[in-house]
Amino acid sequence: MKTPTIEVNTRPESLKEWQAMLKRIFGERNKKLYTPAECLLHILEETRGIAQSLRKETDTREMTERLATIFGWLVAVLNYLEIDMEDALWFKYPGICPYCFVEKNCLCISDEHKYDPDEVNLNHFRRDTERIPRSLSEWQKLFKEIYGRVNDITMRQQIWNHFMEELAEMSYELRHKDKQQLKEESADVLAWLIAFCIRIDVDLDEIVWHTYHGECNVCANAVCKCPYV
Ligand SMILES: [Zn+2]
Ligand SMILES: [Zn+2]
Fold it and tell me: Is the pTM of this model over 0.90?
Protein backbone atom coordinates (compact mmCIF):
# COMPACT_ATOMS: atom_id res chain seq x y z
CA MET A 1 0.00 0.00 0.00
CA LYS A 2 1.25 3.40 -0.82
CA THR A 3 1.85 5.93 1.90
CA PRO A 4 1.06 9.39 0.67
CA THR A 5 3.25 12.18 1.95
CA ILE A 6 2.34 15.84 2.30
CA GLU A 7 4.56 16.73 -0.62
CA VAL A 8 2.86 14.21 -2.88
CA ASN A 9 -0.62 15.42 -2.07
CA THR A 10 0.05 19.13 -2.25
CA ARG A 11 -2.02 20.69 -4.98
CA PRO A 12 0.14 22.68 -7.39
CA GLU A 13 -0.67 26.35 -7.86
CA SER A 14 1.53 27.92 -10.50
CA LEU A 15 2.08 26.38 -13.91
CA LYS A 16 5.68 25.74 -12.84
CA GLU A 17 4.38 23.67 -9.92
CA TRP A 18 1.99 21.71 -12.17
CA GLN A 19 4.85 21.03 -14.52
CA ALA A 20 7.08 19.87 -11.62
CA MET A 21 4.37 17.59 -10.22
CA LEU A 22 3.71 15.93 -13.56
CA LYS A 23 7.46 15.56 -14.11
CA ARG A 24 7.79 13.80 -10.77
CA ILE A 25 4.93 11.41 -11.58
CA PHE A 26 5.56 10.71 -15.26
CA GLY A 27 8.95 12.19 -16.27
CA GLU A 28 11.02 9.03 -15.81
CA ARG A 29 8.48 6.67 -17.32
CA ASN A 30 7.84 8.88 -20.35
CA LYS A 31 11.57 9.18 -21.08
CA LYS A 32 11.94 5.43 -20.88
CA LEU A 33 8.95 4.57 -23.07
CA TYR A 34 8.28 7.44 -25.47
CA THR A 35 9.82 10.05 -27.72
CA PRO A 36 8.43 13.63 -27.53
CA ALA A 37 6.63 12.96 -30.84
CA GLU A 38 4.92 9.94 -29.30
CA CYS A 39 3.80 12.08 -26.36
CA LEU A 40 2.28 14.44 -28.91
CA LEU A 41 0.58 11.50 -30.61
CA HIS A 42 -1.05 10.74 -27.26
CA ILE A 43 -2.62 14.23 -27.40
CA LEU A 44 -3.90 13.45 -30.88
CA GLU A 45 -5.42 10.18 -29.66
CA GLU A 46 -7.27 12.01 -26.88
CA THR A 47 -8.64 14.60 -29.31
CA ARG A 48 -10.64 11.83 -30.96
CA GLY A 49 -12.96 11.55 -27.97
CA ILE A 50 -13.53 15.31 -27.85
CA ALA A 51 -14.30 15.44 -31.59
CA GLN A 52 -16.71 12.57 -31.14
CA SER A 53 -18.45 14.22 -28.17
CA LEU A 54 -18.81 17.43 -30.18
CA ARG A 55 -20.19 15.57 -33.18
CA LYS A 56 -22.69 13.62 -31.10
CA GLU A 57 -23.38 16.60 -28.81
CA THR A 58 -22.92 14.46 -25.72
CA ASP A 59 -22.54 15.73 -22.19
CA THR A 60 -19.64 18.04 -21.32
CA ARG A 61 -18.68 15.70 -18.47
CA GLU A 62 -17.53 13.08 -20.95
CA MET A 63 -14.93 15.51 -22.21
CA THR A 64 -13.41 16.64 -18.95
CA GLU A 65 -11.08 13.73 -18.26
CA ARG A 66 -9.82 13.83 -21.83
CA LEU A 67 -9.11 17.55 -21.55
CA ALA A 68 -7.12 16.90 -18.37
CA THR A 69 -5.21 14.09 -20.09
CA ILE A 70 -4.43 16.38 -23.03
CA PHE A 71 -2.99 18.89 -20.56
CA GLY A 72 -0.94 16.05 -19.02
CA TRP A 73 0.56 14.99 -22.35
CA LEU A 74 1.22 18.58 -23.39
CA VAL A 75 3.20 19.02 -20.19
CA ALA A 76 4.96 15.72 -20.98
CA VAL A 77 6.25 17.13 -24.29
CA LEU A 78 7.39 20.34 -22.60
CA ASN A 79 9.08 18.50 -19.74
CA TYR A 80 10.88 16.32 -22.23
CA LEU A 81 12.23 19.34 -24.12
CA GLU A 82 12.82 21.39 -20.96
CA ILE A 83 10.47 24.16 -22.04
CA ASP A 84 8.99 26.15 -19.17
CA MET A 85 5.25 26.31 -19.80
CA GLU A 86 4.68 29.46 -17.75
CA ASP A 87 7.50 31.31 -19.54
CA ALA A 88 6.13 30.14 -22.90
CA LEU A 89 2.59 31.28 -22.12
CA TRP A 90 3.62 34.65 -20.66
CA PHE A 91 5.99 35.27 -23.58
CA LYS A 92 3.11 34.83 -26.03
CA TYR A 93 0.29 36.27 -23.88
CA PRO A 94 1.81 38.77 -21.42
CA GLY A 95 -1.53 39.76 -19.91
CA ILE A 96 -2.85 41.15 -23.19
CA CYS A 97 -3.93 40.03 -26.63
CA PRO A 98 -0.56 39.99 -28.47
CA TYR A 99 -2.32 40.94 -31.72
CA CYS A 100 -4.30 44.03 -30.71
CA PHE A 101 -2.80 44.73 -27.25
CA VAL A 102 -6.09 45.01 -25.34
CA GLU A 103 -6.43 43.68 -21.78
CA LYS A 104 -10.14 43.07 -22.10
CA ASN A 105 -12.72 42.00 -24.66
CA CYS A 106 -10.49 41.50 -27.68
CA LEU A 107 -12.46 41.10 -30.86
CA CYS A 108 -9.51 40.89 -33.22
CA ILE A 109 -9.14 37.14 -32.68
CA SER A 110 -12.28 36.58 -34.71
CA ASP A 111 -10.59 38.16 -37.74
CA GLU A 112 -7.92 36.50 -39.81
CA HIS A 113 -4.75 37.81 -38.27
CA LYS A 114 -1.25 37.09 -39.23
CA TYR A 115 0.94 37.07 -36.13
CA ASP A 116 3.34 39.91 -36.66
CA PRO A 117 4.49 40.71 -33.16
CA ASP A 118 5.56 44.18 -32.15
CA GLU A 119 8.43 42.85 -30.05
CA VAL A 120 9.38 46.18 -28.46
CA ASN A 121 5.87 46.78 -27.23
CA LEU A 122 5.41 43.16 -26.20
CA ASN A 123 8.68 43.14 -24.24
CA HIS A 124 7.34 46.00 -22.17
CA PHE A 125 4.46 43.75 -21.04
CA ARG A 126 6.63 40.63 -20.75
CA ARG A 127 8.94 42.33 -18.27
CA ASP A 128 6.06 42.95 -15.87
CA THR A 129 6.36 39.48 -14.35
CA GLU A 130 4.47 40.53 -11.21
CA ARG A 131 1.31 40.18 -13.29
CA ILE A 132 1.90 36.51 -14.22
CA PRO A 133 -1.18 34.53 -13.08
CA ARG A 134 -0.34 32.48 -10.02
CA SER A 135 -2.49 29.47 -10.81
CA LEU A 136 -4.04 27.67 -13.73
CA SER A 137 -7.45 29.04 -12.66
CA GLU A 138 -6.02 32.56 -12.76
CA TRP A 139 -4.68 31.92 -16.25
CA GLN A 140 -8.17 30.83 -17.27
CA LYS A 141 -9.59 34.03 -15.73
CA LEU A 142 -7.05 36.11 -17.65
CA PHE A 143 -7.98 34.47 -20.96
CA LYS A 144 -11.64 34.94 -20.13
CA GLU A 145 -11.03 38.67 -19.59
CA ILE A 146 -9.19 39.03 -22.88
CA TYR A 147 -11.15 36.64 -25.09
CA GLY A 148 -14.34 35.82 -23.15
CA ARG A 149 -16.61 38.00 -25.24
CA VAL A 150 -15.61 36.55 -28.60
CA ASN A 151 -15.36 33.08 -27.04
CA ASP A 152 -19.02 33.28 -25.95
CA ILE A 153 -20.28 33.88 -29.46
CA THR A 154 -18.06 31.27 -31.13
CA MET A 155 -19.28 27.72 -31.62
CA ARG A 156 -17.61 25.05 -29.50
CA GLN A 157 -16.63 23.14 -32.65
CA GLN A 158 -14.88 26.21 -34.04
CA ILE A 159 -12.84 26.65 -30.89
CA TRP A 160 -11.91 22.99 -30.95
CA ASN A 161 -10.90 23.33 -34.61
CA HIS A 162 -8.64 26.19 -33.64
CA PHE A 163 -7.07 24.01 -30.95
CA MET A 164 -6.45 21.33 -33.62
CA GLU A 165 -4.84 23.91 -35.91
CA GLU A 166 -2.44 24.90 -33.15
CA LEU A 167 -1.68 21.26 -32.36
CA ALA A 168 -0.80 20.70 -36.02
CA GLU A 169 1.50 23.73 -35.95
CA MET A 170 3.18 22.41 -32.82
CA SER A 171 3.69 19.05 -34.56
CA TYR A 172 5.37 20.80 -37.47
CA GLU A 173 7.78 22.65 -35.17
CA LEU A 174 8.54 19.49 -33.22
CA ARG A 175 9.44 17.68 -36.41
CA HIS A 176 11.57 20.63 -37.57
CA LYS A 177 13.27 20.84 -34.17
CA ASP A 178 12.85 24.59 -33.77
CA LYS A 179 12.73 25.03 -30.00
CA GLN A 180 11.74 28.73 -29.98
CA GLN A 181 8.93 28.18 -32.46
CA LEU A 182 7.87 25.06 -30.59
CA LYS A 183 7.73 27.08 -27.38
CA GLU A 184 5.45 29.66 -29.02
CA GLU A 185 3.21 27.04 -30.61
CA SER A 186 2.89 25.14 -27.34
CA ALA A 187 1.65 28.40 -25.75
CA ASP A 188 -1.06 28.58 -28.44
CA VAL A 189 -2.03 24.96 -27.89
CA LEU A 190 -2.48 25.63 -24.18
CA ALA A 191 -4.27 28.95 -24.83
CA TRP A 192 -6.82 27.24 -27.08
CA LEU A 193 -7.23 24.34 -24.66
CA ILE A 194 -8.07 26.95 -22.02
CA ALA A 195 -10.38 28.75 -24.49
CA PHE A 196 -12.29 25.51 -25.02
CA CYS A 197 -12.60 24.99 -21.26
CA ILE A 198 -13.96 28.54 -20.91
CA ARG A 199 -16.45 27.87 -23.68
CA ILE A 200 -17.80 24.67 -22.13
CA ASP A 201 -17.61 26.20 -18.65
CA VAL A 202 -15.14 23.87 -16.95
CA ASP A 203 -12.22 24.89 -14.77
CA LEU A 204 -9.09 23.30 -16.23
CA ASP A 205 -7.33 23.60 -12.85
CA GLU A 206 -10.13 21.58 -11.19
CA ILE A 207 -10.29 18.84 -13.78
CA VAL A 208 -6.51 18.43 -13.99
CA TRP A 209 -6.30 18.05 -10.22
CA HIS A 210 -9.24 15.67 -10.26
CA THR A 211 -7.35 13.50 -12.77
CA TYR A 212 -3.79 13.84 -11.41
CA HIS A 213 -4.15 14.48 -7.69
CA GLY A 214 -0.49 13.98 -6.89
CA GLU A 215 -0.30 10.51 -8.42
CA CYS A 216 -0.68 8.59 -11.67
CA ASN A 217 -4.33 8.43 -12.67
CA VAL A 218 -3.90 4.79 -13.76
CA CYS A 219 -1.48 2.99 -11.40
CA ALA A 220 -1.99 5.46 -8.50
CA ASN A 221 1.73 5.61 -7.75
CA ALA A 222 3.50 8.85 -6.84
CA VAL A 223 6.03 7.83 -9.51
CA CYS A 224 4.18 6.12 -12.36
CA LYS A 225 5.00 2.47 -12.97
CA CYS A 226 2.54 1.88 -15.80
CA PRO A 227 3.68 -0.25 -18.75
CA TYR A 228 3.71 1.00 -22.35
CA VAL A 229 0.24 1.78 -23.60
ZN1 LIG B 1 -6.89 41.00 -30.00
ZN1 LIG C 1 0.98 4.88 -13.79
Answer: yes
